[in-house]
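Q: My labmate handed me this sequence with no annotations at all. I'd like to see what the chain might look like in three dimensions before we decide whether it's worth expressing. Could you predict it?
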Amino acid sequence: MPPPKQSSDLNKLTKAWGLEMQTGKLAADESAATMLNAGGGRAERNAAFLSLHPANINHDEIATSSLGDVMLPFAGAFEGKPAEGLKETVLLHTEADGFLTDTYAAQGGEIKIPDAKETLPLAVRLQGHFKTAFPDGQPVEGTNQTVSAKQGLKESAKPGVVVLVADVDLLADRFALRSMNVFGQQIQQPRNDNLAFALNLAEQLSGSEALIGLRSRGSFDRPFDRVADLEKQAQIKWQAEEDRLNQKLQAAQSRIQALQQTKPDGQQQIMTLEQATEIKKFREEVFQTQKALKEVRKNLRSDIERLRMHLKVLNIAAVPLLVALFGILRGLWIKKTR
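A: Here is what I predict for the chain of 338 residues:
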């Protein structure tokens, strides 16, 4: 059976506007990677499961000016330039080190970071006169034929507005809400600004902007940017070591294959001394490289944990100490003045 369809496809419609999304490709950005459960009590960063922060949000637009945290799980990205007569405004985007990755690699947590990176639009607003995606008439469902429409519009008579978002999952409950048990009742609390983003756009498009600023206030997540940056660097360095290991493995396999091809006929099942030595050398290289990889990840992880511990100490101990010091100094000052 063919593999199940992994994504929707609106390119037949959006191509007429100059934009399209690559099917089977997802937007990724190590700067916005999310920690996900990898099983076995482990958590791993996934660069395609985007947790967007202020650097990824257009704060010059009223609908997004107060947003601080938007989650886009496995989103696509828009490519191309708007068609003539349309103006494009990017609302959400990756940082400059964004890239496209394969859907299966993203879901399996095996994302490779390419050398070429760029800013990828994740949500855009188009304004102006829209051309029809069906100039030959209305398409007949289930066929490639069209119904001729002599009176159909080839282009909108008045300027319009369309907002394209490369991920519909941002509105799903498990990504937008957090369930809490309060005195036996389940209370839903916003997990991020996903719903505020959708409601702001709905009110802006309907002509009312009175409540947009209010709805965007209040974030329940305060990410540690320094910690995220360290984790990003750890991922990049770990991948470089992994690539080096893969190159060693391929080189050793090519060497073994070359040795097998040079064996005399009739000795296909006999391993030469040179082959045995090469295989032993290869296994030793793999062992040493894997050991080095574990050490690199251990050292980088310890740096992150050390930084987190410092932050915890500051949050838990520093403020009470400052308050106590202020109280002591004030008491001494009052005593001295008396």
